[in-house]
Design a protein that fits this description.
Layout (H helix, E strand, L loop, with lengths): L4 H4 L2 E2 H4 L7 H4 L37 H6 L2 H17 L4 E10 L6 E10 L9 E6 L7 H13 L4 E6 L5 H7 L3 E5 L2 H4 L6 E3 L16 E12 L2 E10 L5 E5 L4 E5 L3 E4 L6 E6 L12 E7 L5 E7 L2
Parallel strand pairs: 4-5, 5-6
Antiparallel strand pairs: 1-12, 2-3, 3-4, 7-8, 8-9, 9-10, 10-11, 12-13, 13-14, 14-15
Helix pairs in contact: 6-7
Amino acid sequence: MWKGESDYGQQPLNEALHPTAWSLRSCVAALPAAGELGRCVAARGLAVCMIYSEVGGNDFEGLTMTAALETPAWLIYERCVATFAVEEFGGIETTITSNAKILGEISGQERQIDVLVDTRWDARTDGRIIIDAKEHADKIDINDVEAFEGMMRDCRAHHGVIVCTNGHTEGAERRAEDAITITLLTFEQALKFDWAFKPCLGPCLTKSGRKRQRGMVLWGEYIPTGFNGLWVIVQTGKCDGCHSFHVWCWDCGVRFIVPNEHVVKCDCEEREWASVPESPESGHVGEPQSIWLMVREGGLPIALDRRPIR
């Protein structure tokens, strides 16, 4: 359940603490070593819906049946593909973002990526993978592959994956070559992956209009980190609507949101969490590449996750 500002004392980053307290440069040395909700198939031309996963209970508190029924088939499929990416590429060394927004290197324009797989601890792009979810009635053809290849170059992706419901032409497969993988994943197959999404703990689901179609958090790996000589386990996630970081702190047992450029306290006594954009104030040199999720408790901040922005 979402805790409001009065509960967690959310404060804008620039008002809560002096920027040097959340210096990205100072944290480098501290980086870690390393059932009502049923399922049915959503298909074109059919008035059918899929209410995410067979988990139910309080995890889906706030996700109304109306909101689920209004979720379009393409968005359900996109989230299924993100869950597929977690199983295929997830790990403590990677961070996976659903509905990512990054600045194109060539175009200088914001590019939307269905699923972005990137390194967790730094902004290197030599392992970057972008994934495009194609919920199309027709097969993927050469034009689709070439458009995607251009997007890969603009996004500095090392590899690309096109996931589609209805297959591809022979020409598309030949054109893809080694840099692009085309994967056939029908709706029925996509729904078999363990669902990795939960509702946003912020205001996403309360907004009117198209925003109601967004606002689900893709949860990632469990991350061990050290405080005062003790190991702590946390899980992190990112909302595919407002893009805010989410945290599950095992010590206090609470899931909560860390709004962009804010500092939040969980139910642990002295533990603070912050969403920190790269900037000269945070010790970053050069063009900003990421927004970082950081935590500290009586010492240097520790980086836990990042959201790439270029």
